[in-house]
Each structure stands twice: as structure tokens, then as C-alpha cells.
Design goal:
CATH topology of the largest domain in chain A: Molybdenum Cofactor Biosythetic Enzyme, Chain A
Oligomer: homodimer
CATH architecture of the largest domain in chain A: 3-Layer(aba) Sandwich
Helix content of chain A: 40-55%
Number of strands of chain A: 17
Mean pLDDT of chain A: 92
Number of domains of chain A: 3
Radius of gyration of chain A: 26 Å
């Protein structure tokens, strides 16, 4: 099954917004065995939209359109769909009910504009949008014995994703498709992409020559993901091949892998803390709350996360964490001594089982020759001892936060599992 | 001048890579007065590439292609260009020299593969690539008195950017183009898109009927951006028209606007705090560090941000912020009384001029009938008084954090500026 993704929006054509919807949709469609062959972006102009629909509907089995479903004048996708398929708009009771619920939950009134959103093209099915007022729209016909699908989704990424996950994927899994595409993502951290590649060695030897397997290296500031993809008509073959490659990768770079499912390290760490019934406190300076934010992004984190001290100023390090003034003066706030005092202070004052601290220079200014931008001291204090580590996470502020938080969470994971640090 | 951007690469079609090149190129072209009307992505397949060239070359004045210029077997863009324009490959001495230099700088030898890269399609101009071996390629013809351009660039983002900045922009600024494209982004928060649209009213009245102006609504959990775009041959006219529309929007929804440049509210708030020489502390429960993280994303935030208390557990609210046990028992942790005590505690214990607190239920679990998921109490304590506010930020954890942080930062901004709250 071949698909085209059409994204609509002037904001994309002027470069104000990076098109993340395309990549997300392409990934999801691939997992469903739908092969994306083309992606097109056009502006909020009726002629351009209709032209895109026209050329796509003739050539592909699935057309997925995002954007232009909102309530304002520049949202013209629904109108264009009606024109293209020669359909009128009819009220959809489910959509209306959903809009009423969403607005009343947030103490908002139902406006005329909102009521307009409850109208959908005749013969289309509405797909529930749990997070916004514009529903997904699905049209399905059988053309020469083959199913053809037209899917229209809101452009707001989280709304689009919610509809794909909760509505489209369950629907499509009930359709009969004969190809199996299996993916496995292995997440690594603490090693750069080139070294990871060196350690894994000859890719063609790893994947075999039958062209059913692919391996992608996906680097980011948090580490490199390895994605294995198997395409086959035989499900058992695909599963065995996937397992074989996964085992081979583990045998080579096991020490850098923190997960073989596509979840963040804060979720991995959270599970371990819950299993071990341990609690944690954090003392953050340079990361300014980013580590705590990542930990509390996980639902249920209140089971193990007690509190954090975001001690940006020196005085707050003294007041909240009992860091000594003399250490601050003697060694500076970015020092092993201060990091250790922060971790111990956080552990004692919070009564947590483990405390971790970080103090550093996030940049882009503030470095010195002895302590260049990016310099960081990290300390971990648990029931047994205190360890400290130095690292440099680079000169770009937001990248610094990404890298530093990942390092801290991996340090915590290794400490919890008794792995070498 | 109308343009299409064509990006080439299988990695884009399976969602492995987010296409950031498109947005970068679109932004740069807009600044040059080149209007991007379409973007297309195809895989590393000769037929698809040629088809994309064909439909584009007929319809646009500038075609910009990225990707597929590398040295390996799957890089087929140059071959496709030769086929499309019916040109042969000829060696380019400048490119060869550049490749030799790049390789010798890294102590690498000139290989046959590298020499192949020095060949470019006849009648094309090479654009120097300072960071890699594949040059940019530019073809220019005069068609019915109008200039037409075909630009091909490597897909590696930093190489592509380097060629655009150092080669294409200086070249294009010497070409005579008569169009001016102006953009202004006005950022609003605290009002949903549909209501904002209602308040702004008749768009055609606002923009006029001469088709030079556009207004886009760009919603996100942090608020809705309004983007005005003016296209005109007359620069003064364009500037005046932009100002006129901006003023009209201000007159209607002034109360929801926090910036008329494209910056986040934490930067707006940071500037005000610095100007007023005020310091701030935050007490976060449900947002778990997200507000502090946003504030510290701004370089120089240590000038006004002292510290935060991430008090997730009840005990930490008592210990760090002097919240009374009786209030926690009587009213619960998500209550007006506790929020107020948190703000006062944070202010007193940190010595900050202003403290803001938030306590709520971020979801997706943990709600009750009286306090459904999303419920939040926020309090602000400054030198004069304490205010408190209730809000519901919805049931999805990460969206909750986005909305809540935006609300808190806007409350702070309004308080700092003495606006109604």
C-alpha cells in the first residue's frame, strides 16, 4: 500500500514552523506496513490544495492530509475536501458532543465558530479528537477491488498524534494488509555515533544479504538510537530475524544500552526506583529544573520523586543545601566540593534514599580559562557512599541541558543497578 | 518570484529524520523576497526525482533541490539533473581544488570517488562547499524575459546552510527582484483560537481587498500566534500596511498580547525583571520543574532567578515552604490555602522580591469529583500583596505543564506591568 502525506499551512512555507508531522506520520504508517512514497506541502490556498488532492488521489492508496482544520478563516481544508469529493457538510452528533465536553471541562462557552467544527463532509467518518475541537476525517472507498483511504487530520501535533494513536491505528489494524514491517529501537547513551558504529562493525554481515533488514543510526543530544527494521511477508521469519540482530547488537554494545523499547531514560529509571521502593531528591543548579521536569514527566513519579532544590544563586546553595560559604569562596560554585555538599545536603534535608546534584556553566557565556563553558560537576549520594564526576557538556545552553540531564539519569540508572560507573 | 523546494531522501519518507532543511530554506528565501509555494519530498528513486523536477520546472521560477549529492551509490541527484537538462558531466577546477584542500586538511588522500564529485553538469555554476566535498550547483536561464533558477544543494544541514549563506545569498542579492515580503508575529495567550478570531472579527475588513496582506492563526498549548504577511512591490506601502494591521489587532485584543516579536514569554518576563531589578523564586509542585526550566532557558537568567522549590511530596511543602500540616489535611495539597502558603514561604525563605507557586493535578490519574484532573491553584506573593487563582489545564500531563507554565508566566508578566489580573 502506497501513501502520500500532504501537509497544509503557510507557516510551513515561510519556515516559521519545522514540519514534524511528516516524520511522525511516516514513522507510524511504516509501522502499519504503509509505504510513504511522497510528501507534499502547500499553503492555505484553495487552488494549490485541490491540485495536491487531485494528483495524489490518482496515484496513491492512502492520502493523509494535515492542517487547515481549525475554526478560523485560514482553515480551508474541510471546504476543499467538500469541493474535491463533491460532498456537502453535515452535522456529526459525536463531534458536537465531544466539542461541548472539551469546552465545558475548561469552563468555556460553545461559540458559533465551535459549532461549525461539528460539521463534516457527508459519507466521511469522524475520528475523535480528545485534545481539540477539530475531528479527524476519514473517507474510504473500494476502487477496482482495492481499498482507498483519504485521511484528514488537524495540524496541531499533539491533536494529530492523539487521533492517529487512539483512532486511526486501531481502525487500520483491522484492515487486511499482507506485509509485516517490524521495528525495534535500541537506545544507547554515553557513546558517540561513530564509535558505536565502529563497535558494531560490518553492517552487511550483521543484517545479512537478503535485503529484509535495515539498521538506522539516529543520533541526538540524549544519545544514539539504533533502529532495526524488518520487512517480510512471513511474520515468523521477521520476528526471528529481528531477535537475531538485536542479540548481536547487545553482544557488542551492551554497556551503552539503557532500553530496547522506545522510552526515555527517566521512565527506565522511574521503574527501577519503584521496584526497589527507593525515593529520590535532586539538587540542580545549571540545569535549572530540567532534570526534575524530565523525572516528573512520567505519570506516577510522585511514588519515588520527593522534591528538588533548584539552587541557582550561591546564597540558595548555602540556605537550602548547607553548602559551606568557604567552599564556594575557595573552590567556586562549579567544583567537586560544592557538588558533593549539594548532594549530601539534598539527601539529608529531604530524607530521600538517593540524592543527585549538578553544578556547572550552561553557557553561552560565563566560562573562564580554568572552567570553560560546559564544565560540570555531578555528585550522587546514597545510603552507602558519595561519588562525583566531572564532565563537559558543550557551549550551547539547551544542548547542555539535554546532555547533562541524560548523563545524570544514566549515572543514576547505573548506580541503581550496581553497574560500573 | 515563486519557488518550490524539493528534498530527496529515503530517510525522510520513513520518518527517520525530521526535515529541517525545508524550514531553513523557506525562511532564507522569504527574506530574499522569494515566495515558496510548494515543498515536495521524494525518495532516492530516479523516476520520482525526474517527475518532481518536471512538474516543478514548468511551474516555478526557482527550484531548490537538497539531498542525494553525496559520493555513495544511492546519491543520484546529479545524474538525474544531467538527464533532465540533457547535460554531460564536466570537471570543475574550483571544485577539485576545494576537495583537495578539504581532504589534505584532514590528512586524507584524494580518491576516485572524490574526483567524481568534482564533475558538474555542463553550463552549471558550482557553489563552494566549505564543509564538505559535494558542491552546490546552480543553473540559470532567461525564459520569456524572466530569470529561472535551478539550485541543487547537499542534504547535510550544515553544508547546505554554509552554501546558502556564503554563496547563494550574496549571488541572489545581486539579481534584481522587485518584491518585498514582510512578516510580523504577534503572540497571544489566555484566549482560545476561536475566541481570538471572534474578537478580531471580519478578516477581509482588517486586511483590505487588495490581496497584499494575509493573517494566519497558529495555535499551540502556549497560546495562539497571529502572523501578518505583506507582499508588495512597494516597500513603503508594505511597511505602512503592516503597521496599520498590527495597530488594528492591538486595538482589539491588546489584553492577550505578550509580544509582537517571535520570542517566548519567559524571555519577555526576564527582560522586565532585569529592567525593574527584581528577583524571583518559584515553588512548583505539579509542574515539577518545568517553569524553572523555562525561565533558566534564557541566557543571563541568573540575574533575576534565585532558586526554586520543587515540592512534590507533602512533607517537602512543610519542610521547605512552611506549609502548615493542618492546611494540607483540611484543604488538601491542591487548594488555595496551600498555594498561598507556598508562595509566601518561597518568598520569605528565598528573600526574592516575588515568588510564584503552583499546586495541582497534572494527570492522567489522581483526580477526584471535587478536584478533577487538571485542577490547579496558583499564588503570587510580592512586596505588596498575595493573589491566588484557580484554573484547569486539562488532563494530559505534558500539555498540562505547557499550559500551566504559560499561565504562570503570563500572570507574572501582568503583575510586573501592573495590568489587570
Amino acid at each position: 500500500m502506497k501513501a502520500e502525506i500532504i501537509t497544509i499551512g503557510d507557516e510551513l512555507l515561510i519556515g516559521q514552523v519545522i514540519n514534524t508531522n511528516q516524520a511522525y506520520l511516516a514513522e507510524q504508517f511504516n509501522l502499519l506496513g504503509i509505504f510513504v512514497e511522497k510528501m507534499t506541502t502547500v499553503g492555505d490556498a484553495p487552488t494549490d490544495i485541490l491540485q495536491a488532492f487531485h494528483s495524489s488521489w490518482n496515484n496513491f492508496d492512502l492520502i493523509c492530509v494535515t492542517g487547515g482544520l481549525g475554526p478560523t478563516h485560514d482553515d480551508i481544508t474541510k471546504k476543499s475536501i467538500c469541493q474535491f469529493f463533491n460532498k456537502e457538510l453535515v452535522e456529526d452528533k459525536d463531534v458536537l458532543k465531544n466539542i461541548e465536553e472539551l469546552l465545558s471541562n475548561r469552563n468555556l462557552k460553545l461559540s458559533n465558530v465551535a459549532i461549525e467544527q461539528a460539521k463534516i463532509p457527508k459519507d466521511f467518518t469522524s475520528l475523535k479528537n480528545r485534545l481539540g475541537t477539530a475531528p479527524g476525517l476519514l473517507y474510504q472507498i473500494n476502487h477496482n477491488g482495492k481499498n482507498k483511504y483519504f485521511l484528514s487530520l488537524p495540524g496541531v501535533p499533539y491533536e494529530m498524534k492523539s487521533i492517529i494513536e487512539n483512532e486511526f491505528i486501531p481502525f487500520f489494524k483491522n484492515q487486511k494488509v499482507n506485509e509485516f514491517i517490524l521495528h525495534r529501537t535500541i537506545r544507547t547513551t554515553g557513546i558517540i555515533e561513530a564509535h558505536l558504529s565502529d563497535k558494531i562493525g560490518d553492517i552487511s554481515k550483521l543484517l545479512g544479504t537478503d535485503d529484509t533488514a535495515k539498521l538506522a543510526f539516529l543520533p541526538s543530544p540524549r544519545g544514539t538510537k539504533l533502529r532495526i527494521t524488518i520487512r517480510s511477508n512471513n511474520e515468523t521469519f521477521a520476528k526471528n530475524k529481528l531477535l537475531e540482530i538485536e542479540n548481536e547488537i547487545y553482544s557488542k554494545v551492551n554497556n551503552y544500552i539503557y532500553s530496547n523499547s522506545d522510552i526515555e531514560i527517566e521512565e527506565v529509571v522511574g521503574k527501577i526506583l519503584r521496584e526497589k521502593k527507593l525515593t529520590i531528591a535532586i539538587a540542580e543548579s545549571c540545569t535549572g529544573g530540567f532534570i526534575s521536569n524530565r523525572i516528573t514527566n512520567i505519570s506516577g513519579s510522585s511514588d519515588y520523586f520527593l522534591q528538588s532544590y533548584i539552587t541557582y544563586s550561591n546564597q540558595s546553595k548555602i540556605n537550602l543545601l548547607n553548602v559551606s560559604k568557604s567552599n564556594l569562596e575557595l573552590f567556586g560554585s562549579v567544583s567537586k566540593e560544592v557538588a558533593i555538599q549539594m548532594a549530601i545536603g539534598a539527601k539529608n534535608n529531604s530524607d530521600a534514599d538517593i540524592a543527585i546534584s549538578i553544578t556547572g556553566i550552561a553557557g553561552p557565556t560565563g566560562g573562564t580559562i580554568e572552567k570553560p563553558i560546559g564544565s560540570s560537576w555531578i555528585a550522587l549520594s546514597d545510603s552507602e557512599n558519595v561519588i562525583s564526576k566531572f564532565n563537559n557538556f558543550g557551549t550551547e545552553r539547551l544542548l547542555f541541558k539535554e546532555r547533562a540531564s541524560q548523563y545524570v539519569l544514566e549515572l543514576l540508572r547505573r548506580n541503581l543497578l550496581g553497574l560500573s560507573i
